[in-house]
Amino acid sequence: MSLTDSKRLAAYKAVDTHLNSATRIIGIGSGSTVVFVVERIVQRGNVKKNKLDGKNENSNQVLEELDLAQCVFVPTSFQSRQLIIDNGLNLGEIDQYQEIDITIDGADEVDENLNAIKGGGACHLREKVVAESSKKFIIAADYTKKSTVLGEKWIQGIPIEVIPFCYSLVLNSLRLLGCQNLNLRMGKNKAGPIITDNGNFVIDAYFGKLDGQQFLGSDKFMFINSPSEVLKRIKLLTGVVEVGLFVGMAEIAYFGEDDGHSVSIL
Ligand code: DER
């Protein structure tokens, strides 16, 4: 069972469980898993033609056909905007649709309380805006993303979008918060740092496991290393635009397992 197959499993399950003929405004996340979210939405646009025989292959669910002409899709990045356009779906922008019915997105890690680290693709600012504007925020991910606590498997660090002008000041502030494992995210096929869709830099800051058992920070500003406390402390730093911690936002998460057919649900 490949990782790609497990992403597809999770994406299809999320779409088949939550999208029906009444769904109109849909937020599309960013990353590799959401490619399969859009793939399934397009298939559901014509159940008969795509021979889905009305049944989801993983369950006895009856699949309603989606009237895609009546639906609008809100992107969370340049990548997801392109995905919507390339699949001939109606594109809507967040400033036109502030009440989104449902957003389905990926994640880099999800803990047992449905808190998530996002931003592996450096898209977490727009993803969080769209997720917060959604009545339902659903995560679809492969089995490697499921953890007990954040920081257990995703050790690349919490993605933090920062203003380029003062990124070194933010690095210093993060050290004062107790983070020693920090780096400015550099481009792979681009010299210098990556630039987000919003023209900013990304710092990845690893605070260890966010299990709420340790104190972080300098003497004057000690705080517990829970996802909510770490999010608050980072967000308050001057120069920080958005933090890749989605705390208490997801309603449910689907993980494609590595057995080739099962999907676990959190
Ligand atoms: O950057 C992001 O937040 C993406 O959603 C990412 O976390 C998920 O990436 P994947 O679907 O490619 O694993």
Can you describe this structure?
The protein is α/β, with parallel strands linked by helices and 266 residues long. Helix content is 24%, strand content 23%. The chain has 6 helices and 15 strands. The chain has helices at 3-18, 33-44, 78-86, 124-132, 167-176, 227-235; strands at 25-28, 72-75, 100-105, 109-110, 116-117, 134-142, 158-162, 181-184, 201-206, 215-216, 223-224, 240-243, 245-246, 252-256, 263-265. The strands form 4 sheets. A 6-stranded mixed β-sheet has the order 2-1-3-6-14-15. A hairpin with a 5-residue loop joins strand 4 (109-110) and strand 5. Helix 1 crosses helix 2 (33-44). It is globular. The protein starts with a helix and ends with a strand. The mean pLDDT is 94. D-4-phosphoerythronic acid is lined by residues 29-33, 105-108, 118-121, 123-124, 127.
Please state the structural category. alpha/beta
Strand order of the largest sheet: 2-1-3-6-14-15
User: In what range is the share of β-strand residues?
Assistant: 15-25%
Small-molecule binders here are:
D-4-phosphoerythronic acid
Summarize the main sheet.
Answer: 6 strands, mixed
Question: Could you give the distance between the termini?
Answer: 21 Å
Number of helices: 6
Indicate the overall shape. globular
Give a short overview.
Helix content is 24%, strand content 23%. The chain has 6 helices and 15 strands.
